[in-house]
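Researcher: Please generate the 3D structure of the following complex. Treat every line as part of one assembly.
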Amino acid sequence: MPGGGKRAGGGGACEVAITGLGLVTPAGIGVKENWDRVQSGVSCATTDEALREAPVGFSCRVPGFDAEALLGGLLSWQLERFVQLAVVAARQALEDSGLEQGTWDGTRVGVVFGNSLGGSSSVEREHLALLDGGPRKVSPLMIPMHLVNMVAGYVAIDIGAQGPSLVTAAACASGTMAVGIGRDLLRAGSCDVVVAGGTESALTPLLIAGFSRMGVLSRRAGDPGAASRPFDAGRDGFVAAEGAGVLVLERTEDAVARGARVRGVVRGYGCATDAYHVSTPEPDGQGLERALRAALADAGLGARDVDHVNAHGTSTRVNDLTEGRVLHRVLGDRPLVTSTKGVTGHPLAAAGAIEAAYTVLALEHQAVPPTANLMNLDPGVEINVVAGAPASAPIEVAVTTSMGFGGHNAALVLSAA
Amino acid sequence: MKKIEARITEVLSGKFKVTPSAIDPGATFANLNFDSLATIQLALGLEEEFGVIIEDGELSSLMTVGDAAALIADLIAAGKAAAGKAAAGKAAT
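Model: Done. Output below.
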C-alpha cells in the first residue's frame, strides 16, 4: 500500500486476512455475478408468487437457486434453504481460498455464521401438519431444520471443520458480528482458519406479515424495482431479501506462508448496544457511533483514513436518517458511501457478511457501487452517497456497518491486502 | 409385491429425490443415505402413499426396499382384515 501510513495494526495483535469469498444473493450465485449486478445499480426486487397472500407481495430472492442440482437430492429436502444457501456460499469461498478439506487439520478450522430467523418455514409447515394430522404427523426433521445454529453445524459437517463453531444471532447485525468474532477467534489462537458468514431465508407469508405489521417494509407494490431506495427522500421501507455471504479468514502470516491470495484485511471490529428499544434505533445513533469508533480504534485508524463506507442503509425512514447522521458525525462527508441494499434488498442476518464481501470487492476494484434508486438524497443526510453510476476512486480503507432489531450495532474496518 | 416395490421406488425418487438408478429391492435405506430421522420421514411419506399406519420402529434404515414392500403388504392385508371384521360385525348387529 503506497505510503504505508494506514497499515499500523491495532494494539500489536496479529493481522487477519480475507482469503476467500462466496456469495449467493439476489444479485446472483457467485462473486463475479454479484459484483456485476451491484455495479449495475439495478434492483433485484420483483413480484413474489409465494407471497401473493402476504400484505407485501414482492421480495428479492436468489435467482435460479436449484438446491437439487447444487447439493444433491437428499440435501434438497433435508436442509432448510437458509442452510442450503450458506453451504453453497461456503463451498465457493473455500474454493476461492485454495483451502481444501483433507489438506488441513480440521480441528483447527472454525465456523461462525450470522443467522436470525432459522428455518421458520419448517415450523410453519409442521404446525399445519400438527393441526391436520396430530403429533405423529410432525416431521422428525423439523427441529434440526429450524434451529438457527444448524447453519454452523451443517457447514462444519460439509467441510469437516471440527474447531469452534457458533451462530451469532443479532438480527440484521448478525453477519457483521460473525466476521468480527471470527477475527477474534483467530487473534485468540483458538483456530487457524475461520469460515465466517451470514445467511437468511425467511420469505414466508407469516414472517412478511410480521415485518409488515411492524411497518418496516416498503409498500411500493406498483413498482417493486423502485422500492428499495436507501437514503432517498422518497423511501418508505425495506424490501425483504434472502442470501448468504461467506469470507474465509486466516492470520495474514499463515495465509502468506501458504502462498494464498490475500483479498483483504480485517483491520478493526467494534460492536455496541443501544439498550433503548426492541426495534427503533436510539434516535442519536449513539450505539452505532460507539461501534464505529470502537472499530476505528481497534484498527488504529482515524476518521480521515476512511475512504468508503458500505452502509447498512436499509431504506427505512428511521434507519437511514439515524445512520446518515452518525456517519456524518464520525466520518464527515469525504468517504464515498453506498448501500448495496438498493440492489439486493435487505437480506437481514446475512446482510453484514454479504456487504463485507462487497466491501472487499470495492477495495479490489477501487470502485464503489451506486445506491440503486437514489434520486433525491434525504436532506437530513449530509453524507456523500454514490448514485447513478459506480464511482472510481483510490480506496485504501473501508468501513461496513450494521444495525439490528434489539439495538445491536456492529462495524468492520477493512483494507486492501 | 412388485407393484408395492415400484410405488416405493416412485416415492423415493419423487418426494425424496433419490437417484432412480441407485434404488433396487436389495438396497437398504442406509445404503441410500437415509439416517434414522430421514427414515422416519420416509415412513410418513409411505403412510401417505399407501394409506397405512407405520408405527415408530417398524421401518428401519437397515431394511431394504423389498423388506419395506413386505411390511406394507402386511399392513395393507391387516387393514383389509380389520375392515372386513368391522364390516362383518356391523352387519351382524
